[in-house]
Design a protein that fits this description.
Length: 333
């Protein structure tokens, strides 16, 4: 890895260690193990199956966002999404996003830069959906101040990015501006401006109001399915909570994943779940048991499936790291 990636990985490790220390100093280890042993694993298995089902919806949404580049078959889109998530779970620096774009380009003959841009648009819709859920929650429950700060931060970030996506989708002004600049700058700037033009074309994933509605609907479907996973895992521990508690967990976890951490969000995920549950009088030890099982239900199966698929297609983790380094130095196509 490059020096910058090493620094990010080190920072993520430090954050993870600190968060786990803050959590485990409040955990009764014997009681924690008892909660794990007494949990209802039939609910956990159902949660795993439901989470894997969410990749069908994710694949369908990404297929819609890729439609302006190429009609990618749904099974292919699902496989690539799962492969990207699997790599993100084992490597730092969110290399999974690069992996998905790289494989989409190589296997389907589309621009890897444009494919990466479509993933960026996908993340913007995820963030916007999470923000809308969080904004609605603020009107239903007297949450502590940190929840309101979270909502304000999410609103500024994702609403701004969403407006950027809409502007680049329905106006060719950004692409025309970049193209005009390319004709007036030194040759050594032509390559980065060319990549920027491809990226902007990739962000033009919304071609009509109907397509915008479809992507928003699928985004809410993705998070509805994931919410179901949270409900099943919590019920595995016999905890009864209102719907807003599950929604707060969902939002807090996924906003927390923006914080640097080790691959898979280890530490950040558990901290977000525990602090969300504490608002609804769930003790730290029980919250930690819920957080661990919920996290493992989400990362272990998809990681195994994704890595096996990559292996069967002769794509190694080491080769992905090398390709990312080469792309960074030479530019994507």
């Amino acid at each position: 890895m490059s020096a910058s990636n090493n620094i990010k990985a080190l920072l993520g490790l430090v954050v993870t260690v600190i968060l786990f220390w803050l959590l485990f100093r409040q955990v009764d280890v014997l009681l924690f193990l008892r909660y794990l042993a007494e949990s209802r694993w039939s609910y956990v298995l159902a949660g795993v199956v439901l989470y894997l089902f969410s990749f069908i919806v994710r694949g369908l949404r990404w297929r819609v966002l890729l439609g302006h580049l190429k009609k990618v078959p749904l099974p292919e889109a699902i496989r690539l999404v799962m492969a990207g998530y699997a790599v993100n779970n084992v490597l730092p620096g969110r290399i999974g996003e690069f992996t998905r774009a790289y494989l989409a380009g190589n296997r389907n003959g589309i621009s890897r830069t444009a494919a990466f841009a479509s993933i960026f648009v996908e993340r913007v819709f995820d963030g916007l959906t999470v923000f809308l859920i969080l904004a609605a929650l603020l009107f239903t429950y007297p949450f502590p101040g940190w929840v309101r700060v979270l909502a304000e931060t999410a609103g500024i970030l994702f609403v701004s990015l969403f407006l950027f996506v809409l502007f680049s989708s329905f106006s060719d002004l950004p692409v025309r501006f970049i193209r005009a600049m390319s004709e007036r700058v030194p040759r050594w700037l032509a390559l980065p401006l060319g990549l920027l033009e491809k990226f902007m074309r990739g962000t033009r994933a919304i071609e009509s109001l109907g397509q915008l509605a479809m992507v928003l609907l699928l985004s809410f479907a993705v998070w509805s399915v994931e919410l179901g996973v949270y409900v099943l895992i919590v019920k595995a521990f016999g905890v009864q909570m209102p719907v807003i508690a599950y929604l707060l967990m969902l939002v807090t976890v996924n906003m927390g994943m923006l914080i640097p951490s080790t691959p898979g969000g280890l530490g950040v995920f558990q901290f977000a779940v525990v602090k969300s549950l504490e608002i609804f009088a769930v003790m730290t030890t029980l919250g930690m048991a819920v957080a661990l099982v919920l996290h493992m239900a989400q990362i272990v199966p998809v990681t195994i499936i994704g890595i096996i698929w990559l292996w069967r297609n002769h794509v190694s983790i080491a080769s992905l790291e090398r390709e990312k380094k080469d792309e960074g130095g030479n530019g994507a196509t």
